Amino acid sequence: MADDGMRQPIPQIVFFAGGEVTPGQLDWVDRATGNLLYRLQWDLFGRSELLPGGERIEEES
């Protein structure tokens, strides 16, 4: 690989052998409007949640 003088970024998501993962989120944004379309967030144990518009959908009881 050619050295372009740029440093490689530090990984933001790390999966561990025990099944854990660094907590985090990914956002999908509309390029034209800048609106947040979806957010995928997860915790240390890999439990994830997809949030349309970045907000939880309240379940009806």
Characteristics:
mainly beta; three-stranded antiparallel β-sheet; 30% strand
Topology:
Blueprint: E1 24-29, E2 36-42, E3 48-52
Antiparallel strand pairs: 1-2, 2-3
Please tell me about this protein's structure.
This protein has 61 residues and is an all-beta fold. The protein has a domain at 14-54. It is built from no helices and three strands. The chain has strands spanning 24-29, 36-42, 48-52. A three-stranded antiparallel beta sheet has the order 1-2-3, with no helix packed on it. It is flat. The N and C termini lie far apart (56 Å). The model has no long low-confidence stretch (mean pLDDT 87).
Quick overview:
This protein is an all-beta fold.
Low-confidence blocks of residues:
none
Q: Give the overall average pLDDT.
A: 87
- Looking across the biggest beta sheet, what order are the strands in? 1-2-3
Instruction: Report the span from N to C terminus.
Output: 56 Å
Total of DSSP H or I helical runs spanning 4+ residues: 0
Gyration radius, in Å = 16 Å
Portion of residues within helices: under 10%
SSE string, helix = H, strand = E? Answer: EEE
Total E-strand runs: 3
Q: Outline, from the CA principal axes?
A: flat
